Hints:
By secondary structure, this protein is α+β, with helices and mostly antiparallel strands. The protein has one domain: Nucleoside Triphosphate Pyrophosphohydrolase. Helices cover 23% and strands 29% of the residues. It contains four helices and nine strands. A hairpin with a 5-residue loop joins β2 (26-35) and β3 (41-43). The longest helix is centred in the C-terminal third of the chain and has 19 residues, at 152-170. Residues 1-6 and 175-179 have low confidence and may be disordered.
Amino acid sequence: xxxxxxxxxxxxxxxxxxxxxxxxxxxxxxxxxxxxxxxxxxxxxxxxxxxxxxxxxxxxxxxxxxxxxxxxxxxxxxxxxxxxxxxxxxxxxxxxxxxxxxxxxxxxxxxxxxxxxxxxxxxxxxxxxxxxxxxxxxxxxxxxxxxxxxxxxxxxxxxxxxxxxxxxxxxxxxxxxxxxx
Length: 181
């Protein structure tokens, strides 16, 4: 660990969803991630907070600040809001926050998604290879939910998010019959 950062105390991920205009399917934005030669797994864009130990910069990032920073880093877009937070988990001293986002949460000036593979190097961890973000139909992920396909807590958060998305779609009359989540 480098000397300017203490241990993080929360993890944050954004679960952005959309209705694919060409086929009407509900999709979520995911990234294939692998560390140190391990098989890739699917995850939502996100990461841990930063706690500065420098005297003038000492402050804790809020979950919303962490989400905005990590989204810009991993997806390449600027979030103008953190969206709704459908679930959180507490594991030891580490809290995981999952925010449900839609495309209205992205700044219109910054609407392009990163297209290149990215190597993320953080002090004290093996390098993480991040594939470009991609839209995946929810039904494809539902059919393959396992620890080997999607990180465990990401899969649990997705199940909760699907229920929220389905409730949103039930309240949009013109989409009710043409879209199945």
